[in-house]
Structure formats: structure tokens, C-alpha cells
Amino acid sequence: MKSLPYFCRGEVVRGFGRGSKELGIPTANFRDSVVDNLPADISTGIYYGWACVGNGDVYKMVMSIGWNPYYKNTKKSMETHVIHKFKEDFYGEVLSVVLVGYIRPERSFNSLEALIAAINSDIEEAKMKLELPEHHKLKDDNFFTSTTIMNGH
Ligand code: ADP
Ligand code: MG
């Protein structure tokens, strides 16, 4: 995918209440404007990269880009699981991410256990790949330290 690495940021909005948090894997949903700006060659599926909330620290993340059931699957959604335990929710805050690499296409699972196992293996793959020097250096990109991050771009 020629658009990778892809940098973007925007407000975190409420999702579809699919109970990701109950699975122990909360996913922060981007507002529509962020999703609308996605380059066409970024296909649906699971990605890994770096993320930061507001002016906070930069953590590893996995992101699912999929079809948004709220819009009858005519629009995409971008859901980021930040690999970090936060003390509080961060709805309404600005999430900054860089999509670094692609893990796998979206698929459906026969059981919740199978879904959770797949996500956990995505998380392990993300952790490992992001240690590669060419991926790790993106953690320190100016994008995450810029002081003018507040209203998206
Ligand atoms: P929703 O359907 O509203 O997206 P989720 O159950 O997916 O609900 O929870 C997502 C919310 O959880 C995020 O918007 C964020 O405020 C919060 N959250 C807490 N920890 C994390 C994390 N590590 N990664 C992503 N979101 C998190
Ligand atoms: Mg979510």
C-alpha cells in the first residue's frame, strides 16, 4: 500500500456499543471526517501502528478499518485499540495515529473465543513488528510532538 505510513488525527466519538470494552479490547472510533479522508488504497482490514491521546505518550496500537454497520456498510469506520491501560475513557479527545503496516483482512469468527484469540494474536504481531527499527522510529516522529495538534488536519 503506497499510502503507508499514513498519519492522521481526529476526535474520538462513541461507537456502536458492540461491547469491545467488555471483551477487554476497547476500540476508540474516529469521527467521520477522519474516515472520509482515508486514501483509497488503504483497504479494510487490521493494521498496526502508533497512537497518542491528546498530548500524551505514544503507544503501540492495532486498528481495524471496516464497514460501518451504522451506515448500512456504505461507509468505513476506523477503530483503534491502544495497547495501554488508561485510567479513564477519552471520548471527545484528539487521537493521533500513524498506520505503519497491514496485518490481515477482516473476517468473521465462529465464536467470541476465536475472535478474542485473533485480536490477541494481532496485538502480539503489532508489538513485535513495531520493534523493527524502521517502524520504531515513527514513534518519535514530529507528528506526535507538534504543538498545533488540536483541531485535526
Ligand atoms: P465504543 O462503542 O463507544 O467505541 P468501546 O467499548 O469500543 O466503545 O470503548 C471505546 C472507548 O474506550 C474509547 O473511545 C476510549 O474512550 C476508551 N478506551 C479506554 N482505554 C482504551 C484503549 N486502550 N484503547 C482504545 N480505547 C480505550
Ligand atoms: Mg469501539
TrEMBL record:
Q: Does the keyword ATP-binding apply?
A: yes
Any single GO CC term annotated in Swiss-Prot or TrEMBL for this entry: mitochondrion
- GO BP terms: FMN biosynthetic process; riboflavin biosynthetic process
State a single Gene Ontology molecular function.
Answer: riboflavin kinase activity
Cofactor(s) annotated in UniProt: Zn(2+)
Q: Which UniProt keywords apply?
A: ATP-binding, Flavoprotein, FMN, Kinase, Metal-binding, Nucleotide-binding, Transferase, Zinc
The EC number(s) this enzyme carries: 2.7.1.26
Q: Which reaction does it catalyse?
A: riboflavin + ATP = FMN + ADP + H(+)
Domain called Riboflavin kinase: residue spans:
1-131
The source's superkingdom equals Eukaryota
Q: In which pathway does it act?
A: Cofactor biosynthesis; FMN biosynthesis; FMN from riboflavin (ATP route): step 1/1
| One Pfam family of this chain | Flavokinase
Give the PANTHER family listed for this entry.
Answer: RIBOFLAVIN KINASE (PTHR22749:SF6), RIBOFLAVIN KINASE/FMN ADENYLYLTRANSFERASE (PTHR22749)
Q: What does this protein do?
A: Catalyzes the phosphorylation of riboflavin (vitamin B2) to form flavin-mononucleotide (FMN), hence rate-limiting enzyme in the synthesis of FAD. Essential for TNF-induced reactive oxygen species (ROS) production. Through its interaction with both TNFRSF1A and CYBA, physically and functionally couples TNFRSF1A to NADPH oxidase. TNF-activation of RFK may enhance the incorporation of FAD in NADPH oxidase, a critical step for the assembly and activation of NADPH oxidase.
Q: What is this protein called?
A: Riboflavin kinase
Q: Which organism is it from?
A: Haplochromis burtoni
Identify the taxonomic lineage of the organism of origin: Eukaryota, Metazoa, Chordata, Craniata, Vertebrata
